[in-house]
Amino acid sequence: MANEIKSSEITPEKVYLNRRNFMRAGLLAGTTLASAGLYRFFNPQPPKEIQTPQISDVKQAPDFKLEEKLTPFEEITNYNNYYEFSTDKNAVARKAENFITRPWTVEVGGLAGKPKVFDIDELLRFEQEERIYRFRCVEGWSMVIPWVGFPLKKILDAVEPLGAARYVAFQTFYGDVKPDNPQVKLPEGKNFMQTAFSAGIELPYVEGLRLDEAMHPLTILATGLYGKQMPNQNGAPIRLVVPWKYGFKSIKSIVKITLTDTEPPTTWNIAAPDEYGFYSNVNPDVAHRRWSQAKERRIGELGLRESLMFNGYAGEVASLYDGMDLKKYF
Amino acid sequence: MQDIKFYKILIFINSLVPLAFLGFDAWRGNLGANPIEFFLRTTGVLTLIFLLLTLSVTPLRKTFGWNSLIKYRRMIGLYAFFYGILHLFTYSIFDKSLNLSAITADIRQRPFIAVGMLAFFLLIPLAVTSTNGMIKRLGGKNWAKLHRLTYPAAILGVIHFWMIVKSDLTYPLLFGLVLAALFGYRIFANQKTAERAVKAN
Asked: Taking Cα atoms as reference points, which of A203, A28, A20, A125 lies closest to residue B16?
């Protein structure tokens, strides 16, 4: 028969087995490598190192020191809730890399005698002081952050609030809503802010405070941290810091501050009114549906520590809420 | 036989890749600012992935005729259980300091914890009865019936994921869609079988 295989053409068993072993080794290595690639693709890359200019002449404010270990710069700048960029806290630093924050203005108005548009460079010329504050996220983690900034009261006083003003509303920059915003140049061709749909919250982000909370000496507009100008992912170029409230109240990248006579709408309250109140003071006695607020994980620690009423600032701010049922006004 | 053994090793090693990375990154201090949260979230997602993989075996077998896949399903299911244990242990040890009354209080107060716990407890009898001996003792039919608990476990797992997410539902939605497709296939296939049975009668 013509098709008969000659015995010399049969692959010897040894060669056959070797070839099979070779292919198996390749398959094993290949799939393992693919699995590894898949894992890396979906999981965070190493932390992003960021550099921002030093802020000169930062006044040390001895009244606002804490005897607690500072959270390292790298962790403050690589674990961020900034939904306009990403809902993954580990990914914000990279996504916010191309956010251009010059020129930048903050419009301060509403019920004010002298409404004014401030340029960021003007705001950076306000006397800057260092404030070391605890920062407590509603998700149950916390940091200790050396902010640089100035009291919000300064900017509010400058526009002379009218007697009718009882609240202050804040608004974050949002690139998708106003791509032609003359205030901020977006990197060309890069639609780097995500949509309200994928963030799951309405954008632009808005927040609010009662006027007495806004005027409180602990409430600051922060322009930096660790003596350097504010990194993008932390809310460059200027953000609010209200240390006795959950972190989401401390709105980032502010473009607008408005004095009002009615309680302004706030983003997380709109998203889930039964979960996030207007006040959102740190309160270990009022549990959130998903997180017991009794304890928190300090970044850098493995276990949990007790959360403090008003995040440890009860002495300074408890009187603001005299006679209020804090379970009702959570 | 040789091939099956090799593919078992292949799946075994690939399923360990995420754990290896978690361990390696933890050792290098590279799990991010909040390593516990990261470990908790990743092991949870892995549990769901392996659960969905076990549920993909039957559709893949029937659609493509890859019948030998059944030989690897037990291992995939046990990996789901394994990552589920890591998930539960991380929560119990680091979030609750192994305090049983704190855990039960959490189950009562937080629906998403209750749902996740229930999903995990449904997996226990499945892991226990996964041996050949147990299949024989229960009888194939009973065993198959019992192992349908995988369905509610997977549904509860996806709901658990859905409930913990604050606002960005992309990933829970993705898992939900895959699960729905796997269930959809089964309903469709069952209907076909029923139709054929009617015709045969």
From this structure: A28
